[in-house]
């Protein structure tokens, strides 16, 4: 990913996990998933079951971060 996308993803993740939230369901590309794992190395990421409306580029994951 490039610097601009990294910055937007950082903002998205900050918003997603604000107010003490530790678990979120996020729809991510493979590149975004790798970035989440780098940013939160102790996180637990679980792929959620696919739905008929899923696009092949983005999948749903449950992301649990340790604070």
Write the layout of secondary structure elements.
Layout: H1 3-16, E1 23-28, H2 30-39, E2 44-47, E3 59-64
Antiparallel strand pairs: 1-3, 2-3
Keyphrases for this structure?
three-stranded antiparallel beta sheet; 2 helices
Beginning-to-end CA distance, first to last residue = 25 Å
How many beta-strand elements?
Answer: 3
Biggest sheet character:
3 strands, antiparallel
Strand content: 15-25%
Tell me, what's the shape?
globular
Strand order in the largest sheet: 1-3-2
Helix and strand sequence: HEHEE
| Average pLDDT reading | 88
| Oligomer designation | single chain
User: What's the helix count?
Assistant: 2
Radius of gyration: 12 Å
* Unreliable parts: none
Helix content: 25-40%
Class by SSE composition: alpha+beta
Describe this protein's structure.
The protein has 67 residues and is an alpha+beta fold. Helix content is 36%, strand content 24%. Strands 1-3-2 form a 3-stranded antiparallel sheet, with helices on one face. The model has no long low-confidence stretch (mean pLDDT 88).
Can you summarize this structure?
With 67 residues, this protein is an alpha+beta fold.
């Amino acid at each position: 990913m490039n610097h601009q996308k990294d910055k937007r993803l950082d903002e998205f993740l900050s918003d997603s996990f604000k107010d003490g939230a530790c678990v979120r369901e996020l729809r991510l590309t493979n590149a975004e998933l790798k970035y989440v794992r780098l940013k939160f190395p102790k996180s637990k990421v679980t792929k959620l079951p696919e739905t008929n409306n899923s696009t092949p580029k983005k999948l749903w994951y449950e992301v649990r971060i340790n604070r």
